[in-house]
Write a structure and sequence with these properties.
Elements lengths: L1 E5 L4 H12 L4 E6 L11 H4 L9 E2 L2 H6 L3 E4 L3 H14 L2 E4 L6 H10 L4 E4 L5 H16 L5 E8 L9 H14 L3 H4 E2 L14 E7 L5 E8 L4 E8 L3 H14 L5 E3 L1 H5 L5
Parallel strand pairs: 1-2, 1-4, 2-3, 4-5, 5-6, 6-12, 7-9, 8-9
Antiparallel strand pairs: 7-10, 10-11
Length: about 270
């Protein structure tokens, strides 16, 4: 499968290039960066710490997409919707790991998914998506007298909060309760907040050091507490999941998919 990596010079972009290099059944078709990037023209393999690939970094996304079968995208929300339009035009699978997406970005992705397969997840690891399935099941089983809190910690350089993974877990909890996360979400507490509102889903965000990603979902009942957690020790697992998603999405009919679809976890 011929894959394009966008944001190729970034930390995740380099890991995606490495993951493609190591995965059977796929090859790097193009490595795309923004206009004016100092990495334009560099060999993408060398950029990722690999042997020379013969694939130079380019800013010409449209012809790159036209010659590929899928694109791996861990960029920024605005860049992702631009790439979504190009992927839809080229009818290639668009694998989106970008976080910090707002409703308008999600609407653009949904529109693109009418023409091609878009696979989006706030986290592409097997462990996190299994955790989300468990959270959905537990939330559906326990009543609203059990409070749900989601705590996450990432490295000091992360720019969005709460993390995409935390939101994914919050959405799983909301789905389990058959409610809208946007209506039940409490992302900030400061000052005299009053008592906790029953049925809400709280988020706590920590930043510091070089933490790859720690997530915990707490179900707090009267006199007992259930905690489900996941610790990511290697960012490369996100890249490996993205490649797995791309291979699954090859030739898939247009639609908006999640990693739960890729991993077959919807039945949990």
């Amino acid at each position: 499968m011929r894959l394009v990596v966008v944001g190729a010079a970034g930390r995740m972009g380099r890991m995606l290039i490495k993951a493609i290099h190591e995965a059977p059944g796929c090859t790097l078709a193009a490595a795309v960066e923004r206009r004016g990037s100092p990495h334009l023209g560099q060999d993408s393999g060398l950029l990722a710490g690999l042997p020379a690939s013969g694939v130079p970094v380019t800013d010409a996304a449209e012809p790159a997409f036209a010659a590929a079968e899928g694109v791996l995208d861990f960029t920024t929300p605005d860049a992702t919707v631009a790439f979504a339009a190009l992927a839809a035009q080229a009818r290639i699978a668009h694998i989106v790991g970008t976080t910090g997406l707002e409703p308008q970005h999600l609407a653009e992705l949904a529109e693109a998914a009418r023409q091609t397969a878009v696979i989006r997840s706030g986290n592409m690891s097997l462990g996190v998506n299994l955790l989300a399935a468990l959270v959905r099941k537990v939330a559906a089983t326990l009543g609203t007298d059990w409070d749900i809190e989601i705590a996450e910690m990432h490295h000091r350089m992360k720019v969005d909060a709460p993390s995409g993974t935390a939101v994914l877990l919050g959405e799983a909890a909301a789905q389990g309760r058959a409610v809208d996360l946007a209506q039940q979400r409490v992302a900030v507490r400061d000052g005299h907040t009053g008592a906790r509102e029953p049925g809400t889903i709280g988020f706590a965000t920590l930043r510091g050091g070089t933490v790859v990603g720690d997530h915990k979902v707490i179900f707090a009942g009267a006199g007992e507490r259930l905690e489900l957690s996941h610790i990511a020790e290697d960012r490369g697992l996100f890249a490996q999941g993205a490649v797995k998603a791309a291979l699954w999405g090859r030739g898939r009919k247009p639609g908006l998919y999640a990693m739960a679809d890729v991993l077959g976890l919807d039945s949990l």
